[in-house]
Amino acid sequence: MSSPAQQPVRSDFAARLRSDTRADHAHVQSLPFLRTLLAGELEADAYAVMLGQHYFVYEVLEQAAEAMRSDVVAGPFISDRLLRSAHLATDLHHYLGPDWREVIKPSAATERYRERLQEACFTWPGGFVAHHYTRCLADLSGGQLIRSAMRRSLNPPDDRGFAFLTFDDVPSSAGVRNAYRLLLDTAGWDEPEQRRIIAEVRLAYRLNEAVFADLGERLPPRIPRQRR
Fold it and tell me: Does the keyword section mention Manganese (predicted)?
């Protein structure tokens, strides 16, 4: 049996992180593009453009994951079950054809997101976790809901086109989330570092918001515009 000195000190950081960023998360979900997506009213071309922007983000995030695998703090958060780039590539091939890499292009908002990932995720463990938490847990938690909405929207004859939202290797999304929260609580970050990570998560939400706001501005006009 481990002695008390060998057991990780547990905090309430996961609950604090969720509480302190709840408003940021809710604001992103209120954007017109996401409301249209969750209402099951998004068309295939709009969905494909969204997948393309996600691909560019995950490309950098997963490069950072490889760089952080051996890190004593960030490494335990990395799971191959949450890798999405290959699944996004499968979906983009389905919607855009074999030349999909020549078709997709990052928006200015996505480029800013990628730049921040480069700055924060390759040398700062807490920064990597902040962005990994914001992106990967959101897609895991919302995957089934969004997949159901897109099935209503596209009414496909099969399940092709939804690899990104399908986590076949995850037997229990709740189990993954609970394990992730335990890692957050036992990472050993002091108070200043916790505040810094919370600030980075809030920034990640703002970067996501900018990407979705851009999608809402330049994609199908039936998406309601935000009031100025």
Answer: no
Q: Which residue reads 């295939």 in tokens?
A: 44
User: Quick check: 219 pLDDT over 70?
Assistant: no
Q: Is 133 annotated as a binding residue?
A: yes
Q: Where are the domains of the chain?
A: 20-218
**Among 143, 175, 173, 171, residue whose Cα is nearest residue 159:** 143
User: Is 18 flagged in the annotation as binding?
Assistant: yes
Reported confidence tier of residue 158, pLDDT bands at 50, 70, 90 = confident
181 is in an annotated binding site: yes
pLDDT value at residue 204: 98
Domain formed by 20-218, architecture: Up-down Bundle (1.20)
Number of H-type helices and E-type strands within the chain = 11, 0
